[in-house]
Design brief:
With 208 residues, the protein is of the alpha+beta class. The chain has a domain of 131 residues. It contains 6 helices and 7 strands; from the N terminus they run E-E-E-E-H-H-E-E-E-H-H-H-H. Strands 1-2-5-4-3-7 form a 6-stranded antiparallel β-barrel. Helix 4 runs antiparallel to helix 5 and helix 5 runs antiparallel to helix 6. The longest helix has 20 residues. The N and C termini lie far apart (59 Å).
């Protein structure tokens, strides 16, 4: 039997667990670490712009990492440390467990049981403790493929409305990822969209 939190062979890697939410589509998850599993995810597994999946049984919510926050109670502790860190891990494991990384996940759609991608606001609410899995590149491409195999970003306005100051760089990152494995025609369409984002990021913030 594998370690808790470790991904089964051939499955997506579990990188975090849901701990809270800011809205129906904006969730916070804690990245699992060595106190959860012997094989914690690498930093590249939960980086900005990484797509993730959350299995809800009848469907799978799809989100993208758009923010992060360090949790470190020790930062506000200025008194002398009575025990070295290795000793704290043995005598005060709860203290060590409080330190970690929280990631902000913006939900952008779902995948139904038939594998059909649906962009937009998911209907299901994600419960606390739900596992968050990293989506592989081929799954990301399938999620963005329409009926005619073209690239779709129907959640574009959703990201603009809810990702705040990270909306433009997030969409820029997504476009760069999709451009790697699309046709020349689709790549040209995406580059036009990218130029529009560049203009918005450069001049949008100058408006009074």
């Amino acid at each position: 039997m594998g370690s808790p939190g470790a991904a089964a062979p051939g499955s997506d890697m579990i990188i975090a667990r849901i701990v809270g939410s800011n809205s129906h589509i904006d969730y916070a998850a804690r990245v699992i670490d060595r106190l959860d599993t012997d094989s914690p995810p690498e930093a590249s597994d939960h980086c900005f712009g990484q797509f993730v999946g959350i299995d809800l049984g009848s469907e799978r919510s799809v989100g993208v990492i758009y923010d992060s926050k360090l949790v470190n109670p020790e930062y506000a502790t200025f008194g002398p440390r009575l025990s070295p860190r290795p000793a704290l891990a043995s005598f005060s494991p709860d203290f060590i467990a409080e330190q970690g990384i929280l990631i902000g996940i913006l939900l952008v759609g779902t995948i139904d049981n038939g594998g059909r991608p649906i962009h937009g606001v998911p209907r299901r609410i994600v419960p606390p403790g739900q596992e968050v899995e990293r989506l592989e590149n081929d799954e990301v491409r399938k999620f963005h493929s329409g009926a005619n195999e073209g690239v779709h970003l129907h959640y574009y306005s959703q990201v603009i409305a809810h990702a705040g100051p990270f909306a433009v760089p997030l969409l820029d990152s997504i476009i760069d990822e999709l451009c790697v494995a699309c046709t020349d025609a689709e790549r040209q369409r995406l580059q036009v969209l990218k130029q529009s984002l560049l203009w918005q990021g450069t001049f949008g913030g100058m408006r009074l």
